[in-house]
Amino acid sequence: MRHESGSVTVNGARLAYDIQGDGHPLVLIHAGIADRRQWDDQMDAFAARYTVIRYDQRGWGDSSAPAGPVAFHEDLYGLLRALNIAQAHILGISMAGTMAIDFALTHPDMVSSLVLVGSWLSGYPTVPSDAEKAVWERYQAALDEGRLDCANKVEVDLKLAGIHRDPTQVDPAVRERLLAIHRPAFDRLAERDRMTPWLKPEPPAASRLAELHAPTLVIYGDLDVPVIPVIAAKLAAEIRGARTIVMPGTAHVPNMEQPQQFNHIVLDFLASLP
């Protein structure tokens, strides 16, 4: 079985990646609250059937963050070109779901299928609930006061537990893993702040979902923040043939909370494709 780790320079950024397995390419793109280690529980299972590529987006993990405008979906294009991959299944979670949709609109011939997990959507207006606003106020206060460990815990607990659970109701081992994965990102905040603006396709994806033709699976946790199910419903309604699966008892990172169920869902979907 193929195992490879390395980095390539794409649009001025050095992107770190891992490749494992053989078969049709499957790209895993991490959430903004993590790096490529988020997929540790998926690599072996998916690599048994596919060539799995995971990478750190610029500004996260082992990838660099040069200053200037960022088109994350074009970073993915450059990565695939550098690795001589003409087409792949694309799996993105959270902000990476946004990026995956933007990539599919911009480079449709390179997308075999889309798996969108707790995805946001370019051009879709989001208004946080009062409960979320209170959490983000605590987060910003901790950040302003330089209490980075506290800010890390506030953000991780919101994303992992959601607004309907106390963090103590989440598997403590999963919480500690995500805290450890996300903590280094706070030491790179100034570096990431220089990556502006985030360049996205125009018109934005929210008005162009009917243009997507790749088989699409939409996944979200039933305990996620309120806007995620709303976006999921829009994706399912406007992307032709899209399927939706809700993972009970999970919030924004279901692949870490219930990895076996998540892997089964994704592999079943991919196996059903022509």
Annotated CATH homologous superfamily of the largest domain: Alpha/Beta hydrolase fold, catalytic domain
- Count the beta strands: 8
CATH class of the largest domain: Alpha Beta
Poorly predicted ranges: none
Described by its quaternary structure, the protein is single chain
Looking at the structure, the CATH topology of the largest domain is: Rossmann fold
**How helix-rich are the residues, as a percent range?**
25-40%
Strand order of the largest sheet: 1-2-4-3-5-6-7-8
Mean pLDDT: 97
What's the alpha carbon Rg, rounded to whole Å?
A: 18 Å
Distance from first to last alpha carbon: 24 Å
Shape: globular
Structural class call reads alpha/beta
Number of domains: 2
Question: What is the chain-wise order of helices and strands?
Answer: EEEHEHEHEHHHHEHEHH
Describe this structure as you would to a colleague.
The protein has helices spanning 40-47, 72-82, 95-106, 130-144, 148-161, 172-182, 189-193, 227-238, 254-257, 259-271, and strands at 3-10, 13-20, 25-29, 51-55, 88-93, 111-117, 216-221, 243-247. The mean pLDDT is 97. By secondary structure, it is α/β, with parallel strands linked by helices. Helix 1 (40-47) runs parallel beside helix 10, helix 2 crosses helix 3 (95-106) and helix 4 (130-144) packs antiparallel against helix 5 (148-161). The protein is globular. An eight-stranded mixed beta sheet has the order 1-2-4-3-5-6-7-8, sandwiched between helices. The chain starts with a strand and ends with a helix. The protein is built from ten helices and eight strands. The protein folds into two domains: 3-125 and 192-271, Alpha/Beta hydrolase fold, catalytic domain (Rossmann fold, 3-Layer(aba) Sandwich), CATH 3.40.50; 130-191, no CATH class.
